[in-house]
Design goal:
Layout lengths: L2 E8 L3 H13 L2 E8 L2 H10 L4 E4 L2 E2 L2 E2 H11 L5 E5 L4 H10 L3 E4 L6 H30 L9 H18 L3 E8 L2 H8 L1 H18 L5 E6 L2 E6 L4 H17 L1 E4 L2 E4 L2 E8 L6 H17 L5 E3 L2 H25 L2 E10 L8 E9 L5 E2 L1 H10 L3 H18 L11 E4 L10 H12 L6 E6 H6 L1 H12 L4 E7 L16 E4 L1 H4 L6 H16 L3 E4 L5 H10 L3 E2 L8 E2 L29 H4 L8
Parallel strand pairs: 1-2, 1-3, 3-6, 6-7, 13-14, 16-18, 18-19, 19-20, 20-21, 21-22, 22-23
Antiparallel strand pairs: 4-5, 8-10, 8-13, 9-10, 11-12, 15-16, 15-23, 15-24, 16-17
Helix pairs in contact: 2-3, 7-8, 8-9, 11-12, 13-14
Length: about 600
């Protein structure tokens, strides 16, 4: 069976071209052979066709093999160039090879020609494959795998460059931070496949409206960033309005259902007085949420005075509500299961979550009140409340503790790490409830731990002395310094859900999760993946060897009620022996010490 081969021959003698073609056919090739004998002809041939190999005579009248090699390399660095000559000295041959020639062959020894061509064509294919793989890796590193837009890392790099330019040259740019208003409706109604398709279509709409010098990025979920270089504020506001109009006119159709898609945009000017990159991104996020609060489908310009005032007023409002909820015992404990992965039936744990029941009976998540609690130093009081309420619950229902330690994961705020009295408070609770500290695993964030490493180490050692364990929470979202893993005496590493959520679709996220897991295991830590929302994510985590998983795809949080059978851990290990606590009945002395428990 004949083999195709595209050969570009730089040769002034037609007879030599015929000899070459005959040699190729003799070895089973069906060559497409094109002969040129000048620089102009070579340039044109390279521009018109992709060649498998270029064969050039060494010394044509007015056109040398060195010149031919240089022209080829300018067009295609991978195509092999073989010098075929009637006479060439050893010095010239060596010089040609150093300049990039693949081989040199004498015309009176054509037996070497075809093997050389086959070898070089094969090597060229490998080089092209490597080059393509490198280009793919580079693209994945700086682009969102779903939409093809710039990813958050690259976007923030470009934003930092624009900020530096503003400081040095006094230029003015603008940032648009866009959040889709109806994305969750599509996701919940039609599933993640439909949601992904919506994001792809929106990405095309946004990219079509901006200039080539602008940058459109997917920042995560249904959030997009648009960097407008050298753009006056009024022009940026006008473009933001145009984007909203495009989204309003857009109709997303999926399996017979049609959705109207709107958006909210936060606009932030970028100039020499804009502060840091973190400041700019934070302002954009605040402005976007302000646009949502003001009715959605609008653009809101960040202005230091009004937004900051509104934020502080809102936080002060929450301070009063938090204090009232503590006094009126309106906080509640919920829990979410942490499942073991892989064939080994390790015990399932439970993470304890905090909720607030407002005066009208509405349940409020921690995202609403914890920022204010942390800002105004109320978080340590909430942490103490959670630990006390949990231990009192287990004391009443000791059968709820799983057979392995720890049974419960409890979050601690960064402020509690500086609470010098917390360890004494915990010891008193453990003594009064007669429960082992091994029941508890406290979660702290890497950012909080590293912010005051010396104090964090003292705190952890003091609490571990009571038998408690520690987990490093949201690993990957902050400083992510693997060096600190050797310093911090923790037992579990919780991988930030931002990387877990898209692990099946995003190769970069998968690589990050795998790296965190491998290094965690290297230093002897068990790994827990957060935000597991799909069975496909469970399968991928299992393949990577991650130890535990947690998320809505496995178990949705539910109240920690006084019906312990409802909340038995999902594992095959035996439960703990019941702990006998004298005086802990309805009128027992131990529980009387805690008036916030209310009636039992």
């Amino acid at each position: 069976m004949s083999k195709d081969l595209r050969v570009l021959l730089v040769e002034d003698l037609q007879d030599d071209a015929l000899l070459l073609e005959r040699e190729l056919r003799r070895h089973g090739y069906e060559p497409v052979l094109h002969r040129v004998d000048s620089a102009a002809q070579l340039t044109q041939a390279l521009a018109e066709t992709v060649w498998d190999v270029v064969i050039t005579d060494h010394n044509l009248p007015g056109f040398s093999s060195e010149a031919a090699l240089d022209l080829v390399r300018q067009v295609d660095k991978d195509v092999p160039v073989i010098i075929l000559s009637g006479t060439i000295g050893e010095d010239l041959a060596v010089a040609a090879m150093k300049a990039g020639a693949a081989d040199y062959i004498m015309k009176d020894n054509l037996a070497r020609l075809v093997p050389a061509i086959e070898r070089e064509v094969r090597d060229a294919a490998v080089r092209r494959a490597h080059r393509q793989a490198e280009a793919t890796i580079y693209h994945l590193a700086y682009h969102d795998s779903l939409t093809g837009l710039t990813n958050r890392v690259q976007f923030e790099r470009k934003l930092a460059e624009a900020l530096d330019e503003s400081r040095e040259l006094d230029t003015h740019h603008a940032l648009l931070y866009l959040d889709l208003d109806q994305f969750k409706v599509v996701n919940d109604t039609c599933g993640h496949v439909a949601g992904d398709e919506l994001l792809k279509q929106v990405a095309l709409l946004l990219h079509a409206k901006v200039r080539e010098s602008d940058t459109v990025a997917r920042l995560g979920g249904d959030e997009f960033g648009i960097l407008l270089k050298n753009c006056p504020l009024d022009r940026a506001r006008h473009l933001g309005s145009e984007l909203l109009a495009v989204l309003n006119d857009f109709r997303f159709c999926w399996l017979g259902k049609t959705f109207n898609i709107g958006g909210s945009i936060g606009l932030v000017p970028i100039n020499r007085d804009s502060g840091s990159l973190t400041d700019i991104m934070g302002r954009a996020d605040v402005a976007c949420y302000a646009a949502k609060d003001f009715g959605r489908n609008r653009i809101h310009l960040f202005q230091e005075d009004d937004v900051e005032l509104a934020r502080r007023q809102g936080e002060m409002h929450w301070v009063a509500r938090i204090n009232a909820a503590l006094e009126q015992d309106r906080f509640e404990l919920h829990w979410q299961r942490i499942d073991a992965l892989g064939p080994t039936r390790r015990p399932a744990f439970r993470e304890i979550l905090l909720r607030l029941r407002d005066g009208s009976g509405v349940l409020i998540g921690p995202g609403a009140f914890l920022p204010a609690a942390e800002r105004y130093n109320l978080a340590p009081a909430l942490d103490r409340w959670v630990v006390r309420r949990l231990l009192e619950y287990v004391a009443r229902h000791p059968e709820t503790a799983s057979g392995a330690a720890p049974s419960f994961f409890v979050n601690l705020s960064g402020a509690t790490l500086n609470d010098v009295g917390f360890d004494a408070y915990l010891r008193e609770l453990l003594r009064d409830t007669r429960l082992p500290g091994a029941l508890l695993c406290f979660e702290i964030t890497e950012t909080a731990a590293i912010a005051n490493l010396s104090r964090a180490l003292d705190f952890i050692h003091a609490i571990r002395a009571e038998g408690c364990r520690f987990a490093l929470d949201d690993f990957g979202s902050g400083l992510s310094s693997f060096t600190y893993l050797k310093t911090l005496p923790v037992d579990y590493l919780k991988i930030d859900g931002a990387f877990v959520r898209d692990i099946v679709r995003d190769p970069m996220d998968r690589a990050i999760v795998e790296a965190i897991h491998r290094i965690g295991h290297t230093v002897g830590l068990k790994t827990v993946a957060e935000f597991v929302e799909e069975t496909s994510i469970v399968s991928e985590l299992t393949r990577l060897g991650v130890d535990y998983a947690q998320g809505y795809g496995l178990h949705r949080p539910e109240p920690l009620s006084d019906d312990p059978q409802r909340h038995a851990p999902a594992c095959d290990t035996p439960r703990a022996e019941a702990v006998v606590l004298p005086g802990t009945g309805p009128s027992g002395s131990t529980m009387k010490r805690y008036p916030l428990l209310g009636p039992r």
